[in-house]
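Issue: ligand-bound run for PRP - logging full I/O for the record.

Environment: standard queue, default settings, no custom constraints.

Inputs:
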Amino acid sequence: MSDASPSTARIPDEYLPNIDKVLIPAEDIAAKLDELAAEIDRDYAGRELLLVGVLKGAIFVVSDLHRRLGVPAAVDFMAVSSYGSATTSSGVVRILKDLDTQIEGQDVLVVEDIVDSGLTLDYLLKNLRSRRPASVEVLSLLTKPSRREVDLPIRYVGFEVPDVFVVGYGLDFAEHYRGLSDIVTLKPEAYGG
Ligand code: PRP
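Outputs:
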């Protein structure tokens, strides 16, 4: 008989002592992206999209979503500084890498790995809207509603997660764990919690 909890077989041995549990296995992420891509194809039928990935966490969501889309889509990336230490929320965001092209008149879909306080996205949306795109919507693989400080319209949501420390599939702790196929939770002692 197999264990009820998802397998940790894909997780490097070095990380295993720090992992609490597999919260969202790779198969569930893939199935959710299938659903979201189908929804986007319906919503944007006959149009072209510009996917805007927010570095670095969104890299896998962008690439895995992009490959599933039936509508034509271009891709670009932005990198923004966080707004201070991990627990502070001043709301001040700095653009470290801007888009390569103008977005005026385009249908933009911002792709995030997670929306936590919402401060990063709030800033980004205001910034992008000022560039007069035809539309701006958001897809976030994860959302932590309990942590939200600003109300944001997230059109496409993958999974709601509780207020726990999640890593993997793009999400990191001090640049570790990003490359995991699954989304996992860390033991508090692994992040000083
Ligand atoms: C994460 C995530 C979002 C932001 C969400 O990025 O990718 O961009 O935090 O947090 P918020 O809703 O509280 O603003 P992070 O700053 O960890 O950078 P990274 O993606 O490069 O790891």
